[in-house]
Structure formats: structure tokens, C-alpha cells
Amino acid sequence: MAMTTMVMTTVITVTITMTATTTAVTTGATEPVATTSRRVRSLLGGAALVASLVAVAACSDDGSSADSSGVASSTVAASTTASGDITTTVAPNPGVVLQDALAALTAGYHFTSTVTVNGAQSLVADGDRIGDASRLTITSADATVAYIITAEGSYVRPGDGDWERLDVPPATSDPISALSAPSGIAPLPTADGSVQVRVTVAATALGIAADGMVDVDVTVVNGAVTQVSYTTAIEGGDATVVTVIGPVADPTPISAPI
């Protein structure tokens, strides 16, 4: 089977079983892990779901009012104090806030991505990205597969098995740069002090083999990206991906396991 565009397509459509085979949710077909590994090469520099989801919002566009630089303009609200003085509050520029928060991810971050299909949890991807390398586990149907992705190669270990080098070259592009041209960006209302933006991006930029656009919601708290989510139609229903982002959990340098 030919490799699909990105691991997000894989995690939406594939369930990992205890017998070290994968089952395509939308077709019911099974195939060996060795074959599936060809579809996992994109792991997006290792950050699987999260990097690609975050990446699509790496720059602003005219989805909201924009100035000549293409960055969404700030909103200025005026209020009057009891003494009659007029004060102004400048709302954060969502494009600038988002770009600054994405830049802070360059050194590394931890991610936990949960995929639900038609309301039922399908799998969880959990791991760290440090520099240009990543390690993560994908858990589904009580089975876990581990991945390590470095500049030298990509590696997989199903269950309690041994590490195996994938027979495909590792991903070489940084999705935060590759997917940095959304067609629109707009602020979302919040009441807790966070900044939330909705970025519109082509489905294909997320690795989804479909036409049309997808809205990706990104939450920034105190200058840091904390959550990225989106919902998209798949064969037979809808899939929702929610990724929680935080500091690196395991700072141990990531290197090839074999």
C-alpha cells in the first residue's frame, strides 16, 4: 500500500493491534507493521500530530483585518474612568502572539494528541520533540508502538519487540515552516486571559487526503502554545484531534536506538 501523506492520516485511519498489525478504520483492511512503517515516515520530524497542527498557524493572513504587512491588526477598546479620563486597552495582536508562541517551540516541547473518531477515542500519541528529533508512543486498542525519529533515520518498536529501522528516509522538512501559510487567521473570544486563534488551512497541509479547508484552533497562555485542535470529515464520519502541549518531559538527548 502506498504511503499516505502524513502520519495524521495514519493515526486517524489506523488502529494498532496486539498482533503487531494495523487495521484501517475506514476500510477494515489489515497489513503488517513493516508495510505500515512506510506510511509513518512523515511523523513530521517526529512530532507526529502536534507539529503539523501547530505549524499551520505559523504566520498570519487576511482571515481577520490586516495591515499592509499581512499581520492581523490589534483591536483598541476605549473606556471612561470615574474621573472622566479615557483609557484605552489594546487587545493582543493574534498573529504576533501566535508567531511568538510558535517560535518558542523551536527548542522542544512535549505533546499528547488524542484522536477520536465518531466520538470514540481511537488512539493517543504522546512524546517529546527536542531540536530536530522526536520520540513518541502511539497507543490504540491496548497496544503501544514506539517511534524515534532523528536526522539519521526513523525507528519503530511494536509492543515489547525490538527496535527496527524503517526502510524509508526520515522526514527532512520542518512542518512549522512548511505549513506556515494559512489562508486565514482570526481571534476567538476568551474569558480566561488566554489567546485563542482559529487558523484556516488546506486539508492537504494537515496530511488529510481531501479537498477543502480545515479550521484549526490554537490556544496560547502566557505566551506559550498549550493546545491545538481540529475536526475533519473522514470516510464514515468525523475525526477530532486535540493536542496538549507543554514543556519537554524527558530532556534526555534523542538518538538512534540501534
Description:
The structure is a single chain. This protein has 258 residues and is mainly beta. It has a single domain (7-66, 89-246), classed as outer membrane lipoprotein receptor (LolB), chain A (Clam). It is built from five helices and 16 strands. The chain has helices at residues 7-13, 33-36, 48-55, 94-103, 175-178, and strands at residues 14-16, 21-24, 30-32, 76-80, 86-90, 108-117, 120-130, 133-140, 143-149, 154-158, 164-165, 184-188, 195-202, 213-221, 224-234, 237-246. An eleven-stranded antiparallel β-sheet has the order 11-10-9-8-7-6-16-15-14-13-12. A three-stranded antiparallel β-sheet has the order 1-2-3. Strand 12 (184-188) and strand 13 form a beta hairpin. The two termini are 27 Å apart.
| Percent range of helical residues | 10-25%
Contiguous low-pLDDT stretches (5 residues minimum) are 1-79
Strand tally is 16
Q: Could you give the order of strands across the largest sheet?
A: 11-10-9-8-7-6-16-15-14-13-12
Compute the number of structural domains: 1
The DSSP helix count reads 5
Question: What is the quaternary state of this protein?
Answer: single chain
Q: Which shape, going by the Cα principal axes?
A: globular
* CATH class identity: Mainly Beta
From the N-terminal CA to the C-terminal CA, the straight-line distance is 27 Å
Mean pLDDT: 68
Please compute the radius of gyration using only Cα atoms.
20 Å
Return the structural class. Answer: mainly beta
CATH architecture: Clam
User: What are the secondary-structure elements, in order, as H or E?
Assistant: HEEEHHEEHEEEEEEHEEEEE
Sheet of most strands: 11 strands, antiparallel
CATH topology: outer membrane lipoprotein receptor (LolB), chain A
* Binned strand content: 35-45%
